[in-house]
Amino acid sequence: MTTFWIVLALVVAAWLVARLVVALRADGLGSVRPPASHADWSDAVSDLPSHPYRSA
Question: Where are the annotated segments for Disordered (predicted)?
Answer without folding.
Answer: 32-56
